[in-house]
Amino acid sequence: MASIESLKQRMENLEDLEQIVRTMKALSAASIRQYERAAAALAEYEGTVELGLRAVLRDAPQALAASREHPDAAAERSAGTPAAIIVLGTDHGLCGRFNEAMAEHVREHLGAGHAVRHWLAVGERVAPGLEHLAGGLPQIFPTPSSAAGITAIVQRLLLRVDAWRAEGIARVDLYHNRPTGRAGYEPGHQRLFPLDPTRFQRRAQAPWPSRRLPLYTLPRGQLLGHLLRQHYFSVLFRACAESLAAEHGSRLAAMQAAEKNLDERLEEITGHYRRERQAAITSELLDVVAGFEAAS
User: Fold this and answer.
1) Domain extent at residue 123
2) What's the angle, vertex CA 107, arms to CA 110 and CA 89, rounded to 5?
3) Judging by beta carbons within 10 Å of its beta carbon (0-12, 13-18, 19+), is residue 135 exposed, middle or buried?
4) CATH code for the domain in which residue 116 is found
5) How many other CB atoms sit within 10 Å of the CB of residue 195?
6) 110, 130, 219, 231: which has the fewest Cβ within 10 Å?
């Protein structure tokens, strides 16, 4: 049977853990809002980039298919499965099955035994679940610690994608978790490269949103290249922001479950401590009464 001192020590330890869990809950709640704002702020920028693409493709709808952003027919036929992938995970734990669910989604999407030529993980904790993808170690980037740090990671990712394309990589896929509510998430993926020209051509055919038609002075190919670069940036930025928001949502849910378990355990030990303390007090009183009776 545990002594009163040991029970008291366990109570103090549980109370300390509760403080840590509450602090992590507060940090996760604040971080979710931070990354949600980052993703929302990007929506206006994405709209501006899309308008620029519509302006360029309005007069030359086939310009995208003729650009280097779209592979030739042979490369397109070989791009059925990704030759390179980017997977967004976490650097820190205590977020449930966030990384495991992401790794399982990648394995299911690629199929058993599939190997990619290159793969890159953002967050070291997702990498162990993907070791089957290729021989050798992947390149691992750290996850941003704040919304302000997303831009630097995205720029590094763009440089890595440029290097892959220079090697002749025909397709790059992006995998990340998306938030579904305050504490839920679901794994997803999208093709980063090559672009689907029909998607942008359909947008280019839509009516212009104002009565002032756009004009541009840069050569069409040069302007299209700059706009597509910003398109890649916005896709990766949004994916990182969504993944980080989903990570902290999962951690918030895990901390809420941990707090509930700690409360139940603390209540149980507190009750045990009170019973043992009352028994000790009763025993001491009986000893005093017995001693008084023996003395008299």
Assistant:
1) 26-251
2) 115
3) exposed
4) 3.40.1380.10
5) 18
6) 219
